Amino acid sequence: MSTKVLSVGGSIVAPEYPDVDFVSKFVEMVKDFLAKNPEDRLILVVGGGGPARIYQKAFRDVTGTAPDAGTDAADWIGIMATRLNAQFVKASFGDLCKEAVVTDPTVANEFTGKILVAAGWKPGFSTDNDAVLLAEKFNADTVVNLSNTEKVYTDDPRKNPDAKPLDEISWADFRKMVGDEWVPGKNCPFDPIASKKAESMKLVVICAGGKNIENTRAILEGKSYTGTTIK
Which domains does the chain have, with CATH numbers? Predict the structure, then answer.
């Protein structure tokens, strides 16, 4: 049996409100993939997306907390948003997902369905780290990180027009780019805390644009894809 882990960014599940069109097509693709690959099962770790950012900004506006200040309160707000999004995704898969949404990857021992859905756990990192921990627990060697960006760039392309997309990058070079600290709501290709853990596990992470559902299918099927491989 092969277990694959997808870290599904909240930015594609709920960029502001739930993206019904995307989720409908994603669910259809996953169901078709599992029907054609009965030995496979999937772990989907869902991020907070727009709801997390909206409520975190509201909290900072009310309290005067700086945007770059790492606070447990802001993290917990984001975590609750991931849990709402994850519950929505779980419900959309019906009987394929038999377990409750996982909120603590260290005690997620039951996986009797074809899909296991997880959300945020606790302050200090994003759902990317939960994806890495679940990959370790269920012996997956690759995490597919689906976001609203097709590839990892040498710099932020929104700020630097000379930033170049990468097909592959080492963990050492990637960690130099993202640093070692997590700030709630931080926008980076893969969480710095998750990256440190993934490097220690020699885990492969594929960063790809989640809106391209056929590209995600290609990754699941081991075919050629558009994205950045970190290893």
Answer: 2-230 (3.40.1160.10)
Whether 211 contacts 218, CB under 8 Å: no
In sign, the C-alpha dihedral spanning 219, 186, 109, 30 is negative
Q: Are strands 152-153 and 165-166 parallel, antiparallel or unpaired?
A: antiparallel
Helix (H) or strand (E) holding 8: strand 2-8
pLDDT in tens, 74-130: 889 999 999 999 999 999 999 999 999 999 999 988 899 999 999 999 988 889 999
Phi/psi class of residue 171: alpha, beta or left (left: φ > 0; alpha: ψ in -120 to 50)? alpha
**pLDDT tens string 48-80:** 999 999 999 999 999 998 877 667 898 899 999
